[in-house]
Amino acid sequence: xxxxxxxxxxxxxxxxxxxxxxxxxxxxxxxxxxxxxxxxxxxxxxxxxxxxxxxxxxxxxxxxxxxxxxxxxxxxxxxxxxxxxxxxxxxxxxxxxxxxxxxxxxxxxxxxxxxxxxxxxxxxxxxxxxxxxxxxxxxxxxxxxxxxxxxxxxxxxxxxxxxxxxxxxxxxxxxxxxxxxxxxxxxxxxxxxxxxxxxxxxxxxxxxxxxxxxxxxxxxxxxxxxxxxxxxxxxxxxxxxxxxxxxxxxxxxxxxxxxxxxxxxxxxxxxxxxxxxxxxxxxxxxxxxxxxxxxxxxxxxxxxxxxxxxxxxxxxxxxxxxxxxxxxxxxxxxxxxxxxxxxxxxxxxxxxxxxxxxxxxxxxxxxxxxxxxxxxxxxxxxxxxxxxxxxxxxxxxxxxxxxxxxxxxxxxxxxxxxxxxxxxxxxxxxxxxxxxxxxxxxxxxxxxxxxxxxxxxxxxxxxxxxxxxxxxxxxxxxxxxxxxxxxxxxxxxxxxxxxxxxxxxxxxxxxxxxxxxxxxxxxxxxxxxxxxxxxxxxxxxxxxxxxxxxxxxxxxxxxxxxxxxxxxxxxxxxxxxxxxxxxxxxxxxxxxxxxxxxxxxxxxxxxxxxxxxxxxxxxxxxxxxxxxxxxxxxxxxxxxxxxxxxxxxxxxxxx
Length: 655
Known about the structure:
Layout: E1 23-25, E2 32-35, E3 40-43, H1 46-53, H2 56-78, H3 84-103, H4 111-121, H5 126-130, H6 135-159, E4 162-170, E5 176-186, E6 191-201, H7 213-226, E7 234-239, H8 243-246, H9 252-259, E8 264-267, H10 269-281, H11 286-300, H12 303-315, H13 333-343, H14 345-358, H15 362-372, H16 374-397, H17 404-422, H18 425-430, H19 454-459, H20 463-466, H21 469-493, H22 499-504, H23 509-513, H24 516-520, H25 525-530, H26 539-547, H27 555-558, H28 563-571, H29 583-593, H30 600-612, H31 622-635, H32 647-651
């Protein structure tokens, strides 16, 4: 049987008193209508519309809407007679309320009750009486404030060189978005800034192509064009190492190199070192990972088991901590899970020994066998030694302060430390680490001399282990393979000959002030050639300031612990004639330090986004989330209670 054609929305309905003021058309969908008070999509049929109009829910929502409109009209009548200072304070109150909503991730629905509550609590307050803001107006205020704060950031990007950090995430409503964060040195305030710019829906628009390199690049360019930010100011880019971002061909990075020559692109250092550890751990027996996962799963959903286990923790005199699991998306979770297993090893062994006698379950038996296996404890103790070396490097790269000046030395230090554990020290110390082959057996120590950490060597002396030569040999071989793979991955993912990192290490204050640095780096020409988008001025001026550092008394600033403060003070340093002697090199250094080395700022932003859009607020659109994050980031500097709106901001809400 042939199906009838669906009815289309008739524009004349909007003029029909029967459907006013609640009916609206649906943009892009001619076969549906929209009820504004009920916030519901309806079929474009007169029968459906009339039936909906007579429903109890619609009548109730219409009464609420009419009541809100009447209440919002009253203050507007009073505003005509209110003194100007009261109007200013009312505007300030509206702004602060919206900031409070954004900072604490509260639903807009709270505005329907909060304002009425304030009026009941403060009946003698003229400001409370004049306040009129419900959920609809609250969302509009958030949009206005978000755009206002973004415009301030945009103004800074129009006049300063900046870098961008991007990453993608999928929220609980399966909306995939890309966050854009900018880092720059503000020449007006002499401060390094990291700010959220925008959140982009990667599937929004007719021509959206999702997460492809071409689509992400086009969206980035479109975003900056929309804000009228000159792309000539773009100097750096950082993201994770995904193929669509950093692939050799047809990626975001390849297009950036092609369209903006001289840009500095850096793969996320935190992500890279995490992948190095993950690949190295695959060499170890699978049972180590299974044990962590099985123990966590056993306790994760049972309050009874957790309560029973506490008795064993008390008996063994260990802290009643919960078990942890290693998460691929959390860079520091692996060592935390290993450390927790070692901490709880004895009570776990006793507990699962008892549970195996009570419950004949395969899962319990597998865990109990692993806990009684001496090699398992050896592997966990070894991981407890080696993982902190990588974790500390990861923590360094996640710092909010600049770290590009520390990467060259710390990467070589980490690589050299790991090599010295299984390679002959005389060969490691005399070799160029960038060309050293960790797989060459001629460079390796005898198996018995490999360093695995003091606790491991103590466990190897245990009578249960020391008498089993086959077990010890197998364990040492696995640990040696772990070292080799870890070194291979570090060498693969980190360019140990990275000239930019080597040059940036000269900006580290102790090295910057060391007279020997002028001998090893007589000129900044090579440095400038690597970052042509950062500095296009007279290199001789940079060299003059660089070579004159040793001839000025910088004792007042050389003990500064924070590198940004060091260069901010160097920027304003004056000689006896009042001439700023290092303003060029200090500004250059601050701009180089603004180059991002990790997308940890984007990861922190995702944590905030997951708090904003949750199960109870799962219909927030991407633009609203973007404005909420923008306001939250701005207000969080001082807190919503201490935030003072500027005159320009107040003017937006004073009629």
